[in-house]
């Protein structure tokens, strides 16, 4: 059946080519020395032209342009527009080309258009016709075909070097015949009875001699090279191409391979080298748990891409096997050049994977994700899409950890790949301040510092609510199990994080201000440690005054505690929340030799979890420092008031002594100035400093968005107070100026004068 089809195709091509040659060589009868051109001469030209056409069609030389009929039609239209000023010819051609495309019977439209374009691009017909003498050449010149040089003999049997360049495969006689039949290139002969036709060699003889020439060629066939290339693509050494220790493939120098073929093989071997590099990395690390979950996801993504590559190799190997079984390389079938074109996409993929492998060898977790993400800034959309697909797989473990942290406060990071770290040795009381930290090197670049801070605060807030505020039910209810975070839309991720951050932070602040009465604690510290509750402080000082004048080592804490409770019951402090009053206590500082009770007495305010997160030990130390300063100032005011009362009581009897009138007046003036100074200083501290700072604190914690901002507002409140009352170490330079020192020196001098006066007045021998 196959032989019958071959014969039919043979006859069809013979008939068509015969008609074409006769058509082009048909000329009007011309006079040569008064005689007509003989019919035998015309038949001889037909036979010679026919043989030459068969030789051209039987060769494997193909045009150097792509088989694109649209491109050829565009070239024809440009030529028509260039040669004719009007566009009517181009429009007419466009109409004809549209009709040609609609014809399904014509299968080789591109060849027809290319032939017509080649004919039209020849030299001027008149010049060609006048420059040739050979009848055959003159006939072709008259038809607009290329000149036939005399040196190109139609009886030439031996192929030229240009033809041998394209004959890389050793075909058999049957293969050669099939190739001609497939490409509509048969080698028939025309029946002719002329003597010159008999002298010409028959086509079969020509084919036999050409086959002998090809068989004597020792060049390695393309089929064997294709088989080697399939092995190279799989990282396996071939027969002629071996893998070298320098991470490259070497072609056997003894192999008979042309230079152009070697260039193609070198380009194709790059695919095998890249495959070995990527595959070695995957095989080495796919089961290595030390690279972490993100690293294993990276290996899985590479393995997925290699699987697609394996599919391509399977298809290619099937094509090579088909060609090998048929022992021929078809004209439109598989070849090294076609394989080179087919592998361009796989080559680009493997280049990207190899680059990622080299850059990510020492990376883990978020750093690995950041390294891959940086390649998304590439201008090539193909590379961007490839990297995005890769990131979708590689970042999956990271986003799973992110999802559990954001919606459940759970940190499952066995290989320390997440940008949030947890210290299990930290106690619950320091959960907010010290238990969790940020690893900057594990923070992906697509997560901004502000977004990372919100993510960090969300997880801390959830754990604070669960373990410090003991509200685990709310955390479980709002766990967000139905929400899935994945790489892709960064804007949607930011919106989701912002919404969760707002809800979680507001819930935490609401618990602190309602369940744990944070506002009442702020107020209590202001009233009792910053001496804002005036009646309580007056009662306490009046009751503790005699006892605190004694040496410090004679004081007992339980006695002072009882006095404190009496002062509470005697003032409006008794109406405060019992939980607030329970936290108020007496504290005795470390006793040194020679100190009085005034020097070691202090009030204390007990704080526990979770409010100790705001009222940290450092903050309570600041409150203690402020209380000691204000307490001593209050003591000076109390002593000055007592001195003023004694002075007024004894002044009438002392005025009878003339020598004391001047001293008494001086003491009155000094005492009044001291009272005025202490009153103004207390006013400045209590109203200008504490009250103004308190107003700022109330505004700040009212509009605070999370616990961190609340803590920052409280620290700012304490810093403002300590700085403005000259207790901050950084404000020493403010104190050291002339006017401040003048005030304190005057204060000490006047206090010494008053003390001397009291000694003189109270001495019985005076």
TrEMBL record:
The record's keywords, sorted A to Z, are: Cytoplasm, Cytoskeleton, Microtubule
Q: Know the name of this protein?
A: Gamma-tubulin complex component 3
| Organism from which the protein derives | Gigaspora margarita
Quote the Gene3D superfamilies the UniProt record gives. Gamma-tubulin complex, C-terminal domain
First-listed, main subcellular location of the protein, grouped into a coarse class? cytoplasm
Query: Among its keywords, does the record have Metal-binding?
Result: no
Report the sequence similarity comment from the record.
Answer: Belongs to the TUBGCP family.
Q: Which InterPro entries match?
A: GCP, GCP_C, GCP_C_sf, GCP_N
One Pfam family assigned to this protein is GCP_C_terminal
Q: Name one GO cellular component term.
A: gamma-tubulin complex
Q: Sorted alphabetically, which PANTHER family does this protein's record hold?
A: GAMMA TUBULIN COMPLEX PROTEIN, GAMMA-TUBULIN COMPLEX COMPONENT 3
Where's the Gamma tubulin complex component protein N-terminal domain?
Answer: 226-515
* A molecular-function term among this protein's GO annotations: microtubule minus-end binding
Location comes to:
Cytoplasm, Cytoskeleton
Q: Name all Gamma tubulin complex component C-terminal domain ranges.
A: 518-734
Q: Which GO terms describe its biological process?
A: cytoplasmic microtubule organization; meiotic cell cycle; microtubule nucleation; mitotic cell cycle; spindle assembly
């Amino acid at each position: 059946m196959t032989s019958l089809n071959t014969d039919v195709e043979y006859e069809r091509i013979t008939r068509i080519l015969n008609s074409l040659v006769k058509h082009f060589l048909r000329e009007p009868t011309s006079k040569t020395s008064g005689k007509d051109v003989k019919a035998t001469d015309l038949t001889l030209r037909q036979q010679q032209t026919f043989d030459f056409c068969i030789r051209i069609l039987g060769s494997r030389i193909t045009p150097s342009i792509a088989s694109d009929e649209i491109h050829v039609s565009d070239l024809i239209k440009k030529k028509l527009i260039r040669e004719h000023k009007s566009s009517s010819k181009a429009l007419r051609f466009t109409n004809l080309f549209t009709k040609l495309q609609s014809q399904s019977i014509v299968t080789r439209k591109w060849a027809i258009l290319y032939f017509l374009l080649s004919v039209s691009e020849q030299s001027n017909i008149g010049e060609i016709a006048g420059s040739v003498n050979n009848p055959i050449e003159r006939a072709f010149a008259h038809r607009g075909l290329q000149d036939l040089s005399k040196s190109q003999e139609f009886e030439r049997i031996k192929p030229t070097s240009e033809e041998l360049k394209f004959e890389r495969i050793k075909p058999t006689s049957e293969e050669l015949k099939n190739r001609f039949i497939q490409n509509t290139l048969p080698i028939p002969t025309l029946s002719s009875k002329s003597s010159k036709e008999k002298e010409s060699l028959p086509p079969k003889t020509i084919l036999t001699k050409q086959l002998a020439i090809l068989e004597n060629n020792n060049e390695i066939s393309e089929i064997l090279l294709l088989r080697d290339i399939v092995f190279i693509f799989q990282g396996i050494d071939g027969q002629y191409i071996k893998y070298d220790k320098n991470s490259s493939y070497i072609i056997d120098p003894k192999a008979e391979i042309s230079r152009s073929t070697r260039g193609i093989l070198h380009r194709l071997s790059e695919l095998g080298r890249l495959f070995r590099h990527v595959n070695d990395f995957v095989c080495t690390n796919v089961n290595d748990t030390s690279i972490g979950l993100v690293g294993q996801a990276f290996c899985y993504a590479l393995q997925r891409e290699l699987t697609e590559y394996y599919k391509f190799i399977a298809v290619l190997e099937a094509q090579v096997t088909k060609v090998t079984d048929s022992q021929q390389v078809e004209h439109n079938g598989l070849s090294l050049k076609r394989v080179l074109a087919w592998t361009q996409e796989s080559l680009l993929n493997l280049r990207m994977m190899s680059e990622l492998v080299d850059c990510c060898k020492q990376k883990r977790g978020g750093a690995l994700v950041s390294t891959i993400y940086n390649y998304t800034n590439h201008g090539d959309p193909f590379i961007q899409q490839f990297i995005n697909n890769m990131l979708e797989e590689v970042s999956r473990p990271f986003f799973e950890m992110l999802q559990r942290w954001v919606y459940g406060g759970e940190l499952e990071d066995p290989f320390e790949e997440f940008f949030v770290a947890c210290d299990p040795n930290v106690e619950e009381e320091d959960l907010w301040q010290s238990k969790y930290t940020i690893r900057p090197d594990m923070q992906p670049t697509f997560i901004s510092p502000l977004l990372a801070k919100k993510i960090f605060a969300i997880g801390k807030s959830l754990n604070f609510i669960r373990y410090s505020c003991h509200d685990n039910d709310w955390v479980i209810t709002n766990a967000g199990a139905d929400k899935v975070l994945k790489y892709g839309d960064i804007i949607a991720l930011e919106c989701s994080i912002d919404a969760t951050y707002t809800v979680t932070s507001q819930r935490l602040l609401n618990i602190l201000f309602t369940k744990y009465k944070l506002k009442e604690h702020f107020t209590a510290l202001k009233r009792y440690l910053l001496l804002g509750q005036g009646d309580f402080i007056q009662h306490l000082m009046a009751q503790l005054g005699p006892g605190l004048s004694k040496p410090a080592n004679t004081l007992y804490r339980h006695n002072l505690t009882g006095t404190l409770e009496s002062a509470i019951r005697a003032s409006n402090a008794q109406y405060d929340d019992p939980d607030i009053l329970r936290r108020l206590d007496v504290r005795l500082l470390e006793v040194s030799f020679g100190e009085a009770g005034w020097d070691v007495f202090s009030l204390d305010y007990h704080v526990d979890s979770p409010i100790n997160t705001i009222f940290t030990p450092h903050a309570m130390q600041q409150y203690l420092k402020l209380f000691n300063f204000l307490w001593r100032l209050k003591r000076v005011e109390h002593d000055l008031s007592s001195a003023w009362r004694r002075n007024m009581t004894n002044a009438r009897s002392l005025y009878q002594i003339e020598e004391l009138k001047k001293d008494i007046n001086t003491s009155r003036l000094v005492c009044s100035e001291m009272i005025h100074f202490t009153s103004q200083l207390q006013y400045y501290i209590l109203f200008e400093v504490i009250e103004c700072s308190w107003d700022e604190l109330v505004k700040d914690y009212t509009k605070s968005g999370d616990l961190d901002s609340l803590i920052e507002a409280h620290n700012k409140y304490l810093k403002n107070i300590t700085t403005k009352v000259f207790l901050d170490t950084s404000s020493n330079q403010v104190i050291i100026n002339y006017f401040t020192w003048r005030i304190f020196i005057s204060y000490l001098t006047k206090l010494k004068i008053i003390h001397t006066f009291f000694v003189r007045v109270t001495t019985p021998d005076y």
